């Protein structure tokens, strides 16, 4: 293999795929990134056998071929190269020469044959969704995913396609986030899958990375292909393929409150900042703060033994009876930081029942937070 390419484009490609690279694998080749050059493109692939990412960059190919190189070393070398023009050559013994300006690096690679084959993106039955819509849906649900691997079906986002809508749900048993959007696809298309957290995080990182590139217009649609045990996402020249979590996601609809006795409209930023301030005086062992409803105000306070006390007040339109309820402040902060509207509704029943948070914009999005013991 012998190619020349632009350093910035090469580095961007490496950064797109390298976070997938397995760091704890017993297979040494999984610490590598696969480079395959032919035509006027070079494909770059990384996988940990659960999630795989492939992207393409523009190169000048003098001799087509393929090689795998340690992802971390390759990234560090390319980042420090002195010139924007990079030449890469591979000999028959898998020795790789990287040349840029006066700098020369000689690395040892592993052959393509040692690298796992990434499943192909199936175009049969694929459908599309707007890139910004998908990114927004991920942002509003990913923080509620469980980190407890013993409850493996909760360690991902439930992804449901039905009647022309895409619904995404996540929960860790103490909070739940739900969002549904009409994405304009065939109403007969149906799918119910659980996508692992790592795959969703990688997808969101790729979408964000593409959205921030300003040198050219990027494709605004994400193509999605769902197979029996895997899902694929394609945007521009980048493909992400992931295995699915097997199992049945719990019936989330039965935990969504159908009615509430108290409905408050509160400025999102004011509630967020007050919660952040008071949360400064909490600890890992004492992680709750109290929200006290009083006439026309919401009093927020924390009292942690050996640390101190904090108190703040947010003005609200409320004329009912007094009530006190406690929450993990990080749960509320996650919702308020991502909800994306100026004001929110808080729907409450009593100090033992969950709080339902929804935007005032009418968007089909809710987040539920369970209270803590006072």
List keywords for this structure.
single chain, 374 residues, alpha+beta, DNA Polymerase III, Chain A, domain 2, 3 domains, 8-stranded antiparallel beta sheet, 41% strand, elongated
Characterize the structure shown:
- The protein is an alpha+beta fold and 374 residues long.
- The protein folds into 3 domains: 2-114, DNA Polymerase III, Chain A, domain 2; 127-252, DNA Polymerase III, subunit A, domain 2 (DNA Polymerase III, Chain A, domain 2, Roll); 256-369, DNA Polymerase III, Chain A, domain 2.
- The chain is 18% helix and 41% strand.
- The strands form 4 sheets. An 8-stranded antiparallel β-sheet has the order 6-2-3-4-17-16-15-10. The chain has an 8-stranded antiparallel β-sheet with strand order 14-11-12-13-25-24-23-18.
- Helix 5 (268-279) packs antiparallel against helix 6 (329-338).
- The longest helix has 16 residues, at 197-212.
- The radius of gyration is 25 Å and the shape is elongated.
- The protein starts with a strand and ends in a 5-residue tail after the last strand.
């Amino acid at each position: 293999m012998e190619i020349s390419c632009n350093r910035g484009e090469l580095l961007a490609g490496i950064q797109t795929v390298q976070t997938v690279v397995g760091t704890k694998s017993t297979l040494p080749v999984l610490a590598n990134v696969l480079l395959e050059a032919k035509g006027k493109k070079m494909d770059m692939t990384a996988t940990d056998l659960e999630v795989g990412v492939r992207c393409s960059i523009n190169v000048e190919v003098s001799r087509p071929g393929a090689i795998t190189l340690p992802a971390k070393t390759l990234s560090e070398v390319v980042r420090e190269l002195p010139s924007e023009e990079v030449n890469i050559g591979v000999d028959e013994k898998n020795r790789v020469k990287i040349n840029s300006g006066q700098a020369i690096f000689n690395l040892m690679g592993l052959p393509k044959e040692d690298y796992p084959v990434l499943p192909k993106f199936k175009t049969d039955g694929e459908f599309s969704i707007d890139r910004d819509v998908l990114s927004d849906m991920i942002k509003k649900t990913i923080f509620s995913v469980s980190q407890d691997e013993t409850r493996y079906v909760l360690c991902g986002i439930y992804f449901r396609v039905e009647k022309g809508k895409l619904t995404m749900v996540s929960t860790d048993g103490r909070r739940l986030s739900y969002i549904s959007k009409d994405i304009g696809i065939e109403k007969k298309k149906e799918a119910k899958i659980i996508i692992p957290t790592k795959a969703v995080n990688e997808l969101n990182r790729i979408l964000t990375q593409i959205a921030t590139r300003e040198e050219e217009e990027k494709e605004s649609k994400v193509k999605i292909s769902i197979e029996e045990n895997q899902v694929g996402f394609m945007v521009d020249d980048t493909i992400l393929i992931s295995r699915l979590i097997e199992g049945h996601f719990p019936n989330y609809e039965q935990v969504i409150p159908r009615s509430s006795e108290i409905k408050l409209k509160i400025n999102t930023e004011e509630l967020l900042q007050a919660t952040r301030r008071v949360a400064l005086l909490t600890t890992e062992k004492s992680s709750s703060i109290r929200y006290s409803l009083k006439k026309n105000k919401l009093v927020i306070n924390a009292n942690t033994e050996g640390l101190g006390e904090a108190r703040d007040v947010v003005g609200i339109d409320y004329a009912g009876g007094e009530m006190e309820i406690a929450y993990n402040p990080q749960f509320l902060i996650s919702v308020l930081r991502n909800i994306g509207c100026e004001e929110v509704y808080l729907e409450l029943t009593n100090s033992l029942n969950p709080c339902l948070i929804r935007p005032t914009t009418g968007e089909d999005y809710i987040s539920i937070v369970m209270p803590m013991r006072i």
